[in-house]
Amino acid sequence: MKFCTKCGKEVIEEAQFCTNCGNNLREESTAKPKIDPPVDLDATNPSLDYDINSVTSESKSNENVSGHLKLSKKNKIVMAAFAVLIILLITTVKVGNSLSDPGKLVTRFQQDIKTNNTSDLENILCSNDTRLNVDSKSISPLLSYFKSKPTYLTQVMQDLNADVMSPKDISSLTAKSDHTLTLARVGKSFFIFPKYKINIKPSFIDIKTTVKDVSFSINKTVMGKSDADNSTKEFGPYMPGTYSILANYKNKYITLSKPYLVDLIATNGVANISVFDDMTYLNITSDKPDADIFVNGKNVNVKVKNASHFGPIDSSSKIYATCKVDGKTLTSDEYLATTDDKDAYLSFEGASNTINDIHAQLDNLLYYYASNIAQAVNNGTPSYIDAYVAYGSSLYNTQHSYISKTYDSGIRENYIDSKIINYNINDDNKSGTITSSESYTIFHTNGSETPSTSSYIYGFKYDASIGYQLTSISKAK
């Protein structure tokens, strides 16, 4: 049934105009219907069959349908948001489970070692000792150790895989833990899932020294120095691995430098080394208390009489003393220090015996020379002194001329005595000078006698085939 929207009169379905009011029904069919409030044009008009209640009921029905449509859209939004939340929750659970899988962490660690991925190792390694710096640079000693000892890496992987079944809590690990690397729980991810890392047990070095002020460096980085004699000092913590410890010590007697190789993994985290344990103090004495002490060929400007607490020195030190005797430098027997010795005696007996022997030879040389020159003058035979004077030397030429001229002049000599009043022997023991005192009686041609005592300075040298001979002469002042 169709009604005119203008007057409300019933029209046939095919009508294009209202037969009552002439309203163009074609325009109304293309436009959104607009229902005006019903107009009572003819209340008595029985042909006006317009049901207000039916229109109101239809309108309310349309409103209810629209309301139901709006509620459906809200439900769709809520349902979509809920679906997204579920997806996010499922994704978070999967990611969380993946990140908290200790087995994957161990596999990741093994791959990082193989590829030398230090930046990723920095993320999965840690230490419960906050003093130990764990970064891509500091872990290099550990990586080097793995590469040099692949069997040790195999053992580490076995231990970590065993830890996967029952990871330790990081707070329970101490320096006394069995393993250098341990899979440990370090907290939670997303406040729910357990978080794991591989904990590194820190390593320490205990260095014992016998003397104070020994300085140490590790892989060319300064560590510190000893604080007292006969003390032990701890250094660390360090990343596990192999290190070179260089110990240095210097005093006015010696300069020492010695490397020590330390394996901080084989020692299970605490390495004990003893440095310069052969160093000691000595009480030095000698038969020449005023002698000067030398250590390793260097004069340390300490006399024997002042060396009651000498040192410290080590067992590689060679100690001797020197002193001047008759212008010659005498050297004591050499002493090699040992750890157990507390006393050192520097003997000059050998040197004294040598110098005494030289003295005896020079004493004999002067005696035979002085007595034979008198005979040479008295006989006019210069060859009497040839065994005692170096051939071709200035003394040889001078005395040969003197002997001949004196003999020809008629003067004769009688040897009375000669002695050496001063020695000056060079350190080579093969040359030097002696100062003599010689006494003669001079017989003149007129028959008179004159006693004569003179002092001369003779030069001498050593000839291996002959012995000591005189080389020069000058009048002593």
UniProtKB/TrEMBL annotation:
<feature type="domain" description="TcaA protein NTF2-like">
    <location>
        <begin position="360"/>
        <end position="473"/>
    </location>
</feature>
<feature type="transmembrane region" description="Helical">
    <location>
        <begin position="77"/>
        <end position="96"/>
    </location>
</feature>
<feature type="domain" description="Zinc-ribbon">
    <location>
        <begin position="3"/>
        <end position="24"/>
    </location>
</feature>
<dbReference type="InterPro" id="IPR054528">
    <property type="entry name" value="TcaA_5th"/>
</dbReference>
<dbReference type="Pfam" id="PF22820">
    <property type="entry name" value="TcaA_3rd_4th"/>
</dbReference>
<protein>
    <submittedName>
        <fullName>Zinc-ribbon domain-containing protein</fullName>
    </submittedName>
</protein>
<keyword id="KW-0812">Transmembrane</keyword>
<feature type="domain" description="TcaA 4th">
    <location>
        <begin position="279"/>
        <end position="348"/>
    </location>
</feature>
<dbReference type="Pfam" id="PF22813">
    <property type="entry name" value="TcaA_2nd"/>
</dbReference>
<dbReference type="Pfam" id="PF22819">
    <property type="entry name" value="TcaA_5th"/>
</dbReference>
<dbReference type="InterPro" id="IPR026870">
    <property type="entry name" value="Zinc_ribbon_dom"/>
</dbReference>
<keyword id="KW-1133">Transmembrane helix</keyword>
<dbReference type="InterPro" id="IPR054529">
    <property type="entry name" value="TcaA_2nd"/>
</dbReference>
<dbReference type="Pfam" id="PF13240">
    <property type="entry name" value="Zn_Ribbon_1"/>
</dbReference>
<keyword id="KW-0472">Membrane</keyword>
<feature type="domain" description="TcaA second">
    <location>
        <begin position="102"/>
        <end position="200"/>
    </location>
</feature>
<dbReference type="InterPro" id="IPR054530">
    <property type="entry name" value="TcaA_4th"/>
</dbReference>
<keyword id="KW-1003">Cell membrane</keyword>
